[in-house]
Amino acid sequence: MEIARLGLDVVDPEHIGEHLGVVSEGERLVTHFFACGLPGYRGWRWAVSVTRIPRSKQVTICESTLLPGPEALRAPEWVPWQERLQPGDLGVGDLLPTPPDDVRLAPGYVQSDDPAVEDVNWELGLGRVRVLSREGRLDAAQRWYDGDRGPNAPISVAAPSSARCGSCGFYMQLAGSMRQAFGVCGNEYAPDDAQVVSVDHGCGAHSEVLIEQVQAVDELPTVFDDSEVESVSVSRAHGSVDESEPAEPYGHG
């Protein structure tokens, strides 16, 4: 242990704490750990590896370094930007290229089980080089169904059980295989207007939602009856002039 401590001779002795333990790394190779007292490195520890050649009693220092311990404060693991990207991160002016081997896309000329894909095969060379693959469609469908416009959304759960999008007059089905489970809301008063919703999604703006009709009350016009006006005498305040008296001179000459 003392020999291992000598491997930290370049470190200020005040920053070297107690011996924390030793770990065997292999045959005649061990690593000693010492507490680290450097400011800002709480939970880190000095590590010194020592070894001994066969049939020798002399211990040799291999290397020394500073390593984080189980409770050390460390930066989060680096994640490639492709994996860090989340829905909604794309902003104005940003570009998000798709890789050539993106499993969500398939060449437009490849045969598909989706009639909608077959309908766009003729567009090859006119801009639709790739279209959604089966895996891409399933991934999108699952994401939509589990999102805020699926059956488990709070607004859908709170809506009447009969107020489902599939029976709403404002519901417009998607084309292709997606039409079986999804459509677009066309009700301008609904919170999901112009959004893709599941067929079993729902809200209070359903076209067939019926509520008790309240009879309207017409506002009657205001009528003034002059014959019922009562004359009231008003006492004159100090300085008031009766209309029968002559006008006072103003002194303008």
Automatic annotation (TrEMBL):
Lineage, top-rank taxon, reads Bacteria
Cite the residue spans of the region called Disordered.
Answer: 228-253
Give the originating organism.
Dactylosporangium maewongense
Q: What is this protein called?
A: DUF3027 domain-containing protein
List, alphabetically, the InterPro entries matched: DUF3027
